[in-house]
Design a protein that fits this description.
By secondary structure, the chain is an alpha+beta fold. It has helices at 24-39, 60-78, and strands spanning 6-9, 15-21, 49-56, 81-90, 94-102, 113-114, 122-124, 127-135.
């Protein structure tokens, strides 16, 4: 079994990752973890801050972008990066999760926004997969 959560994908000007999960919960957690790995070395983060997130969106792709955007916003507001994700539930229209993070020791990149570019959530064989492009 593959234990990887995401792969970095070559992209001309921005940062992109390919993320997958056997469930929507796992895909959303892996996407958030993949984004955190672009921001800093997650091994250096002490996850002492905890927050609850609840979101609703028109569809699952919009929910994924809103989820990652909310993590970016809260991270910048609180000066933390989130590295642990306990997702209570995620459907095609709503999400509830507890996230944990800590201060960034050293920035690797600054993500300005999560984009819809190349975002196409699909079920392939036994898992969900999608690309996520971050505007830097």
């Amino acid at each position: 079994m593959n234990d990887k959560r995401f792969d970095e994908v070559e992209h001309t000007a921005d940062i992109a990752i390919r993320v997958w999960g056997h469930t929507l919960d796992e895909l959303f957690a892996n996407a958030a973890y993949g984004m955190a790995c672009q921001l800093t070395d997650v091994e250096d983060v002490d996850p002492t801050e905890e927050m609850e997130i609840q979101l609703q969106a028109a569809d699952v792709e919009m929910l994924l972008v809103d989820w990652l955007s909310e993590l970016l916003y809260l991270g910048e507001r609180e000066n933390v990066v989130f590295v642990e994700f306990d997702i209570s539930w995620v459907t095609s229209h709503s999400l509830r999760a507890i996230v944990r993070g800590g201060p960034i020791v050293e920035h690797q990149a600054h993500i300005k926004a999560v984009t819809f570019s190349e975002l196409n959530l699909e079920w392939t064989a036994d898992q969900y997969e999608t690309n996520i492009v971050f505007d830097v």
